[in-house]
Amino acid sequence: MSAGMSAPEPWLRGPIAGVPPTLQPAAHALQQALEDVRASVGTLDDAALWRSPGGGAPSAGWHVLHAGGALDRLLTYARGAALDDAQRAALAAEKAPEQVNGATLLAGFEARVAAAFAQLRATDPSTLADVREVGRAKLPSTVLGLLFHAAEHTQRHVGSVVTTARVVRG
C-alpha cells in the first residue's frame, strides 16, 4: 500500500480469526461499524455528540447507544434467551438517554461489539437454521437471521452516526 492510502475495508482484509466462514460477513460488518463509530465519535465534543441535526432526527450519541443496545438484544434472542430486566430497562432508557461523554459511550459500544465477536466465534454453524423467537410477540426468526440482522441493524445506525456527526460538525 502506498503512502496516503488507507487500509482496505474489513471485508477486504481477510477472515476474522475464529469466526466461522458463514458468519464472516456479519463479523466484517461489525468490524466496519466499530471503526466508523471510533472515527466519528472521536471528531465530536460531548455537546455535539448529543446534538440533533434538526428535523426531529436523533443525535449521533443516540444512534451509538441504540446500535449497541439493539446489538445486545438481538444477540440475546439468537442465543435463545429472553431479555432480562437490565436489558428492558436499557431499552426504556433509550427514549430519553443519559448524555454520557464520548469516551464512556464509545467504551460501551466497543464492549457490545466485543461480545458480538465472542458470540460469533462461539456459534456452532450447525445451529444457524435453529428457530428463535423475537420479542414479547415471539416473532419467528433463526440464529442466522438474528446474527445477520444484528450486523445490518448496527451498520444502519452507524451510517446515521457518520452522517449526523458531519452535519453537527458543520
From TrEMBL:
Domain DinB-like: 29-159
InterPro entries listed in its UniProt record: DinB-like (IPR024775), DinB/YfiT-like (IPR034660)
Record-given protein name: DinB-like domain-containing protein
Lineage of origin: Bacteria, Pseudomonadati, Gemmatimonadota, Gemmatimonadia, Gemmatimonadales
